[in-house]
Amino acid sequence: MTTVAAYAAPAAKAPLERTTIERRAVREHDVLIDIKFAGICHSDIHQAREGWGEAIFPMVPGHEIAGIVSEVGPGVTKYKVGDRVGVGCLVDSCRECDNCKAGLEQHCTGGNVGTYNSVGKDGEPTYGGYSEKVVVDENFVVRIPEGLALDEAAPLLCAGITTYSPLKRWGAAPGKKVAVIGLGGLGHMGVKIAHALGAEVTVLSQSLRKKDDGLKLGADHYYATSDETTFKELAGSFDLILSTVSAPLDFGAYLGLLKAGGALVNVGAPEEPISLNLFSLIGGSKTLAGSAIGGIAETQEMLDFCAEHGIGAEIELIAASEINEAYERVVNSDVRYRFVIDTATI
Question: How far apart are CA 207 and CA 71, in angstroms?
């Protein structure tokens, strides 16, 4: 066991505070990672405040982890000391179900193990990236290519894969028109990746406040959804709409923006249920779908793609002492576009 410093929420809705946690001794197939940077994801806030249901406390959030390997177990073959690596939302799964065998560990039917707010196979709670070090099985570690700065790579481990996976699955490509709802932590990555995949990209945001940013990030068009003419002007325009916001939307209105056979895919997760008139799906044979993160292999594919295309997250680097302030700013949409903790400050 190794004692390391971390920032934890001691109880639901309580401010995070500096503490110490125990990391397990390195096992046969484990990798010990010195965490250099940890992104702050809106889902960290949802869980630390029990917005998604009962949670485990004390909680050390953080599933956007970038660091350097400092020790490997005797059976490790994929990594060596000094390698640049990342850890995303998962640190284990059953590895035996059909989904795991298909590289869909995020949909493990035996129950995957989250990087934090979860219980490992040893019965111990998992603690995330707001800490100095983490021990992870090599099969749930990914390599960060040399072309990516570690601080800009950290958010790719959640925001990057969460947008890459549905964009690939639903065919964002040259000749396709893709809209991204929201230009936040997820949305800005969606714009960058959809643009790199060759699609024609439109941002749908509440206002035009971030229009210049959206166009610089790769959007071809930018519309304000608060302008009621937007929904008339863009009716039937898109092959794919990616919703990255966690606020409830008028899904009927957004489905009206799809071409026949188009898909509206949600990666934002509102805490409230939605209502929907099914005629907005039936008319035009449209699809309303959801998408989680991606499996480990697809996460590696995404990192390699981002390195090839020079894509990192747009970040604000903060000290650990600023985490609570950062949480409030995320809730108020006051970040451009992902907070990343310099873990040397923990």
Answer: 48
